[in-house]
Amino acid sequence: MAASSTHDHTVPFVAAVASWNCLARQTEQLLGHGAPSPATRAHFELTLDESAKNTASFRLRLFLGLRAMEGKRANFFFCIPPNRILDLDGRTDRVPNSVRTAFLLGTKKEVPSTKIVSLRFRLSEPGIIVLPKVRDLTPSSQMAGRTLELLESLARATEFTISFEDKSDSRRASLLAALHGRDWTSTAERALDLDTLYTGHGAKLVQGAHFSLDSSADGVPAESPPSYDELAPTPSPVRRSLSPPRKKLKQAPSAEPSKQSLNMPYEWETMLAEISVRLTQQFRREMREGLDQLETRVKAEMAEHVVGLEKKIDERLAELKEEMHDDFDDAQGLTKDEIELSLDERMSLIKDEVNEYAKDEMRVIEDGLRRDLSEARVSFEF
Questions:
Q1: Residue 281 φ/ψ, nearest 5 degrees
Q2: Which residues pair with 81 in a beta bridge?
Q3: Which residues contact 82 (CB under 8 A, 6 or more apart)?
Q4: pTM metric for this prediction
Q5: What per-residue string of b and e applies to 35-57 under the rule 16 or more CB within 10 Å gives b?
Q6: Quick one: which of 173, 94, 157, 77 has its CA closest to 121?
Q7: DSSP assignments along 64-133, one per residue
Q8: φ/ψ (deg, to 5) at 347
Q9: What would the pLDDT profile of 328-375 be if each residue is shown by its tens digit?
Q10: Is the pLDDT of residue 225 over 50?
């Protein structure tokens, strides 16, 4: 296939939202742009290369902070190997309200459903996580902890949908046509190049089924004979807290209330952010309508003033023409020099009079516009 066609099947990192059903919680989960928090950022990259033996690349990128990185944040990639795809369905006609709300919170604008592409994946086994070479996955903030929890759940899923915005109608149609009825069997070389990630420090790859926040991020090591310590009974592993260390509180009677209290700030933050976005959009819409009405009224008043001004100028010029004829009759007996001097003086007086009259009329129009604009001034605070 030509290079231009290959380029049409490439979507750079664009805002995206992943959705799936969590079997443990029996609820729909969202991770991406605007979810779980309006400040969460996620982008999706897609490459389809038909000229290279059905090579493809599907990557969801998240920006997270870990305590081990000393306050810095790095990219986490959720990669989908093409050879694990059992079924891939691309469409633009079914976008859940939860996904549209996430886009609204993340992008601060309404994204039409016709501009959102939804890719539904069904895999033979979970995807792959690419992350920095760190052993400790303790998050740097509570929000990062919640995002890592969702990433762990997504990494274990075999059925999920990734939705992203694509404003190009031609590219969207070409992309859906390329996805339909084709088996993508190999991963693009660019997605396999881990040594160039993280400013040359390299990355490590963890199978999604083995990605866990309970242990180090090294994944599952190769098989080796058990040590003597491993033969003895060992205590059950303790799950590491996802939030930063803080003062120890009294244990609640049950774990469910504490989980609800942990999620409450995110729910409130999401609700307040959604209200803020909708109020801002409503304010902008009302301001736009008000300015359009003001512009229409100003144009109508300006046209009316101009018509009146032209009418008065025509009447005054007619009067001056008659006066000029009278003066010309009176000047019949004057010499040529006296006639020219009289005409020059008369024309100069006429120009001055017309200019002063036009300035007065324009000053009246300017004062009216300034008064209308001052009355239309609105302040909005939220």
A1: -65, -40
A2: none
A3: 54, 55, 56, 57, 58, 184, 185, 186, 187
A4: 0.58
A5: bbbbebbbbbbbbbbeeeeebbb
A6: 157
A7: EEBGGGTT-EEEEEEE--GGGEEEEEEESS---HHHHHHHHHHHSS---GGGEEEEEEEESS--EEEEES
A8: -65, -35
A9: 766 666 566 666 666 777 777 887 787 787 778 788 877 777 776 676
A10: no
